[in-house]
Amino acid sequence: MGQDKSSSKDTKETILKVLSVIWIVVWTIVKWCLITGFWFCFSIIAFTLALGGVSLPQPRYIPKPGGRKINPKQAKEQIRREVKRKQSKKFLDEYEDMLMRLQQEEMERLQREQFEEQEKKERLESLSIRERILLKIRENPGSLLEDILTEEEMEELIFMILEVLL
Q1: What are phi and psi of 87, to 5 degrees?
Q2: Per-residue exposure over 97-121, b if at least 16 CB sit within 10 Å of its own CB, e if not
Q3: 104 close to 134: Cβ distance less than 8 angstroms
Q4: How far apart (Å, rounded) are the C-alpha atoms in residues 40 and 99?
């Protein structure tokens, strides 16, 4: 009888070991099936939505800092439109200091550099146009710039503003 009890214990232990191994194998297969089934169902749903035309939301576009380039032609046209619409008093309030500083720097640069006489005369003539522009603007504070200045003077004024801004 003692033998029966020990052999029955050994048999029970062996059966328990076999059952535990079987349980581990079954549980591993079930886990694998559950995980695979989940991703399979998810991919079928996503594929169905994609076929139906549903798309994922697009991320918001964040512009790169400093990535914006200035197009000189567009800037010139925009400044031309704005200058034509402004009154001379408002224009002077915004740009007089910058334009005067630019004119003063140009004069100082001319004095420092040694040019041939012809080049110096050309520079002084362009400065005289600028001086004439500023004088006309100061004399007619309530008028539109389009009415005060000629086409050549408007072009020169636009170039002056571009020099100041760029």
Answers
A1: -85, 155
A2: eebeebeeebeeeeeeeeeeeeeee
A3: no
A4: 70
Enter the tokens of residue 112: 């420092």
Spell out the domain ranges in the chain: 10-56, 72-165
**DSSP3 helix / strand / coil % (the chain, rounded to 5):** 80, 0, 20
Structure tokens belonging to residue 85: 């619409």
Q: What is the pTM of this model?
A: 0.32
Q: Which helix (H) or strand (E) holds 65?
A: none
Alpha helices (H) in 52-144, listed in sequence order: 72-85, 88-112, 117-139
Number of neighbours of residue 135 by Cβ within 10 angstroms? 10
In whole angstroms, what separates CA 80 from the centre of its chain? 25
* Separation of alpha carbons 110 and 15, rounded Å: 107
One pLDDT digit (tens) per residue for the chain, 166 residues: 556 667 778 888 899 999 999 999 999 999 999 999 999 999 999 888 888 877 777 777 766 666 566 777 887 888 788 777 777 777 777 777 888 888 888 888 777 776 666 665 676 566 678 787 887 788 788 888 888 888 888 888 888 888 887 7
Length of the chain: 166
